[in-house]
Amino acid sequence: MAQDKDLGIYTGLFFALSIILMAIDIVTLGNVSLDKMGIDIFTPFANRIIKMGFYSEGKYYLVRFFIVVLIAFAVFGSKPKKRLKENAKIELTILKAAISSIIFIFTYLLYHLGMNIATFSIYTIVSVITYFLMVTYFGVIVTTINSSFGKDRFGKEGRKFQQTQELMENDYSVNLKTDDGWINVVNPFRASLVIGTPGSGKSFAILQPAIEQHIKKGFAMCVYDYKFPTLSVFTYNCLEMYKKNYNVEPEFCVINFDDPRKSHRCNPLQPELLIDSVDAVEAAQVLMIALNRSWNSKQGDFFVESPINYVACLIWALRCAEGGKYCSLPHLIELLSKSYEKQFQFLASIEDGTISNMAAPFISAYENQATDQLEGQIASARLGLSRMTSPVVYWVMTTDKDEEGNEIDGINLKINDPKKPKILCIGNNPEREKIYSVCISLFTTKIMKVINKKHQNKSALVLDELTTMSFPKGTLDNIIATGRSNEIATWLGFQDITQAVRDFSKENAESIVNTMGNIFSGQVSGDTAQRLSRMFGKIKVQKESHSISDSGTSISYSEQLEELIPESEISTLSQGVFCGKIADNFDEKIEQKFFYSTIHVDPAKTKQLESGTLPDLTVFLDAQNKPLSDKDINQVLLDNFNQVKSDIDQLLERTLTEA
After folding, report:
1. For residues 7 and 289, what is the distance between their CA atoms, to the nearest angstrom?
2. pLDDT tens digit string along 236-268?
3. Calpha distance 529→516 (Å, rounded)
4. 115 shares a domain with 91
5. Largest Cα–Cα distance in the chain?
């Protein structure tokens, strides 16, 4: 209040001085006219002013210029009356103020026309009018400039907050450049969630830079490429650029089901990965839940657990039969297609206590001729897996073996082996998603299990479009919770949390989201935006209030708590703009863990890394070592397809013979 009072005193003083000077100016230059009217009382005063030199030739404008300056100072400290206009055209007002000032200053030119009663009257009237016009227009300008009224209608300016400006880099970090500084993911092992609607920039702004920087720093990696080969090409080019950074150069591997020449072969059910029957049950859960998404929220129900247990029983039986020689998904599919009689005879022939217990309910139902009950329990497994019957799927998911039964052309899923690190890309096809996702879910689940061990190479899992895959309860949150200590950086991407709830069940989705240390959000809406807004919390926002009355316009300020990033703002983020939070380390503290900014990516470098094609990873040759034609390659796939069928027929025949 004291400051306002002092400011008011100075304002009044400036106004008074400007009025006094204008009166002196009018009297001095108009003295000739006053003499003619017989008014000579101002003559001595005017003569003294003229002798002071202010009105010598060429300096007539100085006093008036000084008056304009005084008016500007006076108005700057005043409270203009009723000048507040939300859409004031400041440019036009400035022009009017400038014109008024110029007319006011150069009115002295009338003096050169010779002072008489007419010119004196015009001189006085113009001076008074332009004086008040200047006061008016200057007031509008000052009020418009000083006021935020109407400028920040959505309150964005008031919610701006300081963000991390310095680069914090270490041997594991991912650092993203922004408008205001850096987003420093100094601990990627605490898992990162990237969400946003299609086109929000998840891959371009975050996941691709994460892939590049992880490879640059020597990570082994598994990348899920939903729209193969987009991310696979990018990953391959990154490896070519930075492969010298590795102590042991990693092998670049690809699994995809569209082009066998661009794919390696791998059996996710190889005996070495099935240590006991629990592993078989886990594999069965992955397969059946991937085929029936609604089962995710029904685990424990009889008609859900029954087919899962039966498939697990067959997997473990294949694992035990002949040293696991035929333990693969294609062989499982073929075994399921056989009659119940042959299947149960095969199960009964396996000398394993676990299988006896697991198969007992099904064998009992069969022996008691409860065919309808048995069909109801097993039909979902037979029908679902039968849709995956395909020569290329059979070829990718089986391997050739030598005479001793060892695989000779399959890749190992232990991507973080320090002696044989791998960069593995697993490709999907949106047009065949429902079929391929079942196989891919099995691969990724097995990878999560085999890499989650101590003393391995640092590694990263980059799983964009996560909800197109399925995982048993506890799989993902386990790798997030325990992978940190084993140097596994997990990057999960999907469109919004409600999508995860739909595909993974509410319990699983909540468990995944709540264990994430780093969260990036592009444009999302609905419940997801609301949840994120609550996570960001509230901030003290300065509010400006205006009160307009005849005595003037008063502006008051107050502080109140508002959402740091409101739901409405999250739902309208532009492409490449992300908000979120970052986790730090004990020895690398990040004061401001929240961020909200545009992420900058080098378009030229990104375009370079996205260009090109993948090399042929499997070369099909004839007896003369010449490349096979597409027709001949299809025949190779068909021969393998028929071989799998023959393997199961021969296995069952040997079983029946021995029985």
Report:
1. 75
2. 999 999 999 999 999 999 999 999 999 999 999
3. 17
4. yes
5. 145
Centre a 10 Å sphere on the Cβ of residue 539 and count the other Cβ atoms it contains: 16
Q: Write out pLDDT tens, residues 464-484.
A: 999 999 988 888 989 999 999
Where among 146, 165, 191 does a domain terminate?
146
260 and 301 co-located in one domain? no
DSSP calls for 274-333: --SHHHHHHHHHHHHHHH-GGGGG-TT-HHHHHHHHHHHHHHHHHHHGGGGTT-SHHHHH
Does pTM top 0.90 for this prediction? no
Residue 81 has pLDDT above 50, yes or no: no
- The single residue listed with the structure tokens 């085929």 is 291
Q: Which residues contact 107 (CB under 8 A, 6 or more apart)?
A: 64, 123, 126, 127, 130
As given in the structure block, the two tokens for residue 104 are 């006011």
- 3-state DSSP call for residue 508? helix
Residue 517 lies in a domain: yes
CB 204 within 8 A of CB 606: yes
Domain of residue 459 covers 174-264+411-607
Q: Does residue 86 carry a pLDDT above 50?
A: no
Same domain, 577 and 496: yes
- Whether residues 451 and 599 fall in one domain: yes
DSSP-assigned letters across all residues of 27-54: HHHTHHHHHHTT--TTHHHHHHHHHTTT
493 & 386 share domain? no
Most confident residue range from 361-370, 398-407, 549-558 = 361-370
Count CA atoms within 13 Å of residue 215 on its CB side: 29
Q: What is the pLDDT of residue 631?
A: 94
